[in-house]
Amino acid sequence: MKILLVEDDLDLLDLTAYSLRRERFAVIEATDGAQALHRWKVDRPDLIALDLGLPRHDGFEVLQRVREKDLTPVVVLSGKTADQDIFRAFNLGADDYVSKPFSAKQLALRIRAILRRVAAEPLEQAEPNFSVGDLHIDPEVQEITWAGRYVRLTPTEFRIFHILAMHAGRTVTTSRLLAYVWGYEGGDPNTLRTHISHLRTKVQLGSHGAAITGVPGVGYRFQLTVERAGPSPNARPRESTEGRTLTAKPAY
């Protein structure tokens, strides 16, 4: 079952997307209203989980435009608790209204309840495999394969490597990594640094023409060079730097 998650707070976006994927939903992400409308038209999600306070068309406008075209279920996720905001959302056609902060498990239950009501029983879908060059990541078993060599990671190591690989060539901030891997209540920069050190050893990054580099005061970046990475039919190029860095992000 495909969910379009629209949230401009990147930490909350990562945390909610990760939680929904653990509940066996495929998640498409958008960070502003314009991107949300584009992803809705292109990917045709089964349900939209929509923040209201968005740049480039707020959530109310996104909801209105969706309702002008079809009846895609919409769950509003918002910190707005005033009655007029809640009434407005429902009047525009929202199917449910969830106030922040919310329980990820409760959100998943609400989504399934809505889908049952619209006679679209959830078809559980595992998060798709992700490939770039000779690197293959299988979220289902939390395992990576590199040049034919299997590497099994701990759940924490896998989550760190997964988000870095999905944003290859781009710096992922320390705060975003901590929220994605441990949530808002756990983890600290020293623990993260230790896990990344273990990752470098287990994956043997240097021998594969790749590296996880620290950006002082900002975060970490995963880079995979073209010279050491063969083409992969599943990879989707995202950006390059001086013709040397191949990056990709899976389509959820």
How far the N terminus sits from the C terminus, by CA atoms, comes to: 11 Å
In terms of quaternary structure, the protein is: single chain
Series of H and E elements: EHEHEHEHEHEEEEHEHHEE
Query: What gyration radius follows from the Cα positions, in whole Å?
Result: 19 Å
Which labels suit this protein?
alpha/beta, five-stranded parallel beta sheet, Rossmann fold, about 250 residues, Arc Repressor Mutant, subunit A, 2 domains
Task: Explain the overall architecture.
This protein has 252 residues and is of the alpha/beta class. The chain has two domains: 2-117, Rossmann fold (3-Layer(aba) Sandwich); 130-228, Orthogonal Bundle (Arc Repressor Mutant, subunit A). It is 37% helix and 21% strand. It has eight helices and twelve strands. It has helices at residues 10-22, 33-43, 59-69, 83-91, 104-117, 155-166, 174-182, 189-203, and strands at 2-6, 26-30, 47-51, 74-78, 96-99, 130-132, 135-138, 143-146, 149-152, 171-173, 210-215, 219-224. It has a five-stranded parallel β-sheet with strand order 2-1-3-4-5, sandwiched between helices. Strands 6-7-8-9 form a four-stranded antiparallel β-sheet, with helices on one face.
